[in-house]
Amino acid sequence: MKRILPLLLTLVMAQPLGAHPHVFIDTGLTLAFGPEGRLQRVKVIWIYDAFYSLLITQDMDLDQDGDGLLNPDEKAQLTGFDMQWVEGFNGDLVITQEGQELALSGPQDVTATFVEGQIVTTHWRDVTQDTAGSGTYEVTPYDASYYTAYEVTLPVEILGADQCRSRIAMPDITADLDALRQELFALDRQAQPEDAGLPNIGAKFADKVVVTCASS
């Protein structure tokens, strides 16, 4: 991700973790189709790992009483903390339709909560290029640098399209891919994977949601 405060970067780098990834996010998706069968919006749910959630809440001085609950002001402060995207950032989400990447809006209808020590955020994104309304979609949440590891462990819902079915395609960890992962983990903390000849490395380890829609 490209939204982390400098203080958090320092804290994470001080931990005894492998070089990559640093942040772990359980992910869920809702795909909303319109009346003509075209994909119109996608809702993204992120549940941050407990350690990263702790760093965020400490840095923002939230939950100072340690009861695991946020008051309304704290919740308002937390909402949108991860939505300050730099220009050109794709939101760590790629959607293709029959192999053609679809354009997505920025985040909308943002929410944030704090549940059992973990930050949970949601946002919606408009899909602006779906013209077919049928065929196969691939929805892939991933960080190209693999700083953040996304795993689709939460439900995938489809709204407004009974003709569509989804399945999760997990990466096939072959011997070659496992060797690549060990090479990645051996990198110096300050090194960027692309500088070590490993561009777009996150895509190789990404869960992919495959949605197949029959013609109406």
UniProtKB/TrEMBL annotation:
Domain of life: Bacteria
Signal peptide (from-to): 1-19
Keywords assigned by UniProt, alphabetized: Kinase, Signal, Transferase
Database matches in InterPro entries: DUF1007
A GO molecular-function annotation: kinase activity
Transferase as UniProt keyword: yes
Name of the protein in question: Polyphosphate kinase
